[in-house]
Design goal:
Elements (H helix, E strand, L loop, with lengths): L24 H10 L4 H11 L3 H12 L4 H18 L5 H8 L15 E2 L9 E2 L15
Antiparallel strand pairs: 1-2
Helix pairs in contact: 1-2, 2-3, 2-4, 3-4, 3-5
């Protein structure tokens, strides 16, 4: 089946009508290589629908490193979904987010459900189940 974007994966890359249903990292990575419009929407879909954060986070990091401001913004949204759903982030992702222009950085902070000592990078930082990951500083956001 061919999508509206003219690709064999059956996805509408130009219109974006079915990109939130993407659940395969290799499809999104191929879209990055092709320079597909709306690839950031697919990154969000991947974050919402793929069960393995280890497979999703490298794709999210690629979005956060994009030269396209909108794709970076969508990468931040995808990262927040991964943090919310899986309570984890990749070591690269917060660094990419911190380097992003202020208008694309998240503005929410962790709440009372945060815990310390859970950072996947091993630094003793925090993760949050209901808000934004607070970074690798080994401190509680409370």
């Amino acid at each position: 089946m061919r999508g509206g974007g003219g690709t064999a994966d059956g996805l509408d890359w130009r219109g974006g009508s079915n990109l939130l249903a993407v659940d395969r990292p290799e499809v999104v990575l191929a879209a990055f290589r092709r320079g597909e419009p709306n690839v950031g929407v697919a990154v969000i879909g991947l974050a919402l629908h793929h069960a393995d954060p280890e497979a999703v986070l490298p794709v999210v990091a690629r979005a956060l490193e994009s030269a396209d401001r909108e794709v970076r913004r969508q990468g931040v949204i995808a990262l927040a979904h991964v943090a919310r759903l899986h309570r984890t982030v990749d070591r690269r992702c917060p660094n990419c987010s911190a380097a992003a222009p202020a208008a694309t950085r998240p503005t929410t902070t962790c709440g009372p459900s945060c815990r310390t000592g859970s950072c996947r990078s091993g630094c003793g930082g925090t993760t949050c189940g209901s808000g934004w990951w607070s970074g690798c500083a080994g401190r509680s956001p409370e």
